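Exam revision sheet. Question 4 asks you to relate a sequence to its structure. Input first:
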Amino acid sequence: MNTPLDIRSLAARLATRSWSAFEHVRATLDDIAARNATRNIYTRLDQAGALAAARASDARRAAGAPLSALDGAILAVKDNIDVAGLPTTAGLGFRRERVARADAFVVARLRAAGAIVLGKVNMHAAAFGATSRNADFGDCANPRHPGLVAGGSSGGSAAALAAGWAQLALGTDTMGSVRIPASYCGVAAIKPSAGMISCSGVVPLCARLDHVGLLARDARDLALALPLAAGFDAADAAARRFGPQAPLAVPSTARAPRAPVGTDVEPGIWARFEAALQTIERLGCVVERFDAPPCDLGRLRRAGLLLTGAEMLVIYATEWREARAAFPHAMAATMTWAEGKSAHDMARALTLMASGIPLERNWLGHAQCLLLPTSPLLPFASEAPAPANQADLTVLPNISGTPAASVPMPCAAGELSAGLQIIGREGDDMAVLALAAAYQSASAG
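Answer key, structure tokens:
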């Protein structure tokens, strides 16, 4: 079995020349060949391209000129993000033949930093769901917790890391789709500030909420990768110009609710959340507790679902007109529901979603970070119905465009994975990752 390595551990081994990028990629491909048939994590591999990139990485290192800390690291790419020469299916069988002509903007940036694209990973169909059960490509397994869902929609991205089959993964996050699978699979993730990572070359779901996100085994790896993945893209209408993403000190102030708010949270998750707050305070970050007035975060999520359904009618207009039977049931049901809504309904949904922005601001107050559980749920059985509230605690940062990371909370023997969510102010992505990395390091010790 391939030994899981994070970016920093791999870089240290490569620097001593005791291990080569070529050996690393070859060993990973061998392990995938042995295990992927029952896990359905990778849906398409570029073996020849990855091995050629590994040889080039080794040559650069031998010449003393690695491109970055990512040089030689394996990158897994969610299958709604373009990789030149590979299909971009978005998890839909009827898109199997849609081969990308060029890399997505973010894939090109990470390749330029020396990351090795191994292939495409499984996902929830159309990125519309939080389990990564997929009728066309097989259900994506959770290597950390066999028999339980990997989360979604970027389930394959989190699962590839949990399996040790990548050091870095790209996903997309519309209402929590990198943070929820990170929580369920025991890895770290960040949904950056809106417009920081380009969405060019990404199959959209809901432009108002879509973000490209990063996943890694360790939040310190995310801090290495984010400045390399970020960059202004004039072709992306949502792109924003941000200052240099330099590492920052651990934030000195944070806020957290005194009790679960906005949705039902499993008691075991809240107990671990309370323990996480104590760890964060030992890091020197003062955590102010606040009483939040009653609210229904599910209403914001449902408003987002309506807008998403309406946009899917535009994105998949031809297929919807010609082959409705090819659509997954849940996706088709939402699109049919959206067809029956009026312009008034859509405007009301937009207004309702906008109310989430002052809600998040009030919860954050004058602090640098807002702390919440990532999901109100633990990973559940693969065959169980999907609870509706999985994304209730992750939807706010998509509405507001603020950065939000998920970092694993410690797991005792027999416990299931759960994540701590750290939300920051717009543009303060590295501060969020500084706290995530410090917490992960402290809680691991």
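Marking note for examiners. The CA atoms of residues 406 and 421 lie 5 Å apart.
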